[in-house]
Amino acid sequence: MKPAEADVSYPLSRVRERVGVRAGAKVKARGLRGQMTEDETLLWQQLRGRRFQDFKFRRQRPLGPYILDFVCLEAGLVIEVDGGQHAEQQAHDLARTALIESQGLTVIRFWNHEVMNETPAVLETIWQTLQTLTPALSRKRERE
Q1: Contact, 19 vs 79, CB < 8 A?
Q2: Is 3 exposed, middle or buried (0-12, 13-18, 19+ CB in 10 A)?
Q3: pTM
């Protein structure tokens, strides 16, 4: 049997989801959407429905053995919101980040208190990262 990381050839493929390749992960992600923390909900309100600079974000998306908090597929950006438990599981988070980045995605992390208390700064960091990842799209949006 292959390790879970080896099974990830194109992790976010809509076709693979439709044929039920990751049905268990989809069920788990759906459950997590209903149990979002207060800070995740606050950030989601800013990102959902192309509200943030017309970028499409998805929440609680499966990737191999992990569930990503937020992901923008067009830019290849993953946003993780970490609580206090992440201070004790740094090795786990490093392995998770390595797997995500091996799929060509960029990861940025914020602590819960940053999202709650410094929301404009968090959104500015996300915007700066999006501009770095998609310079052509950013210039097009500036002209519109």
Answers
A1: no
A2: exposed
A3: 0.71
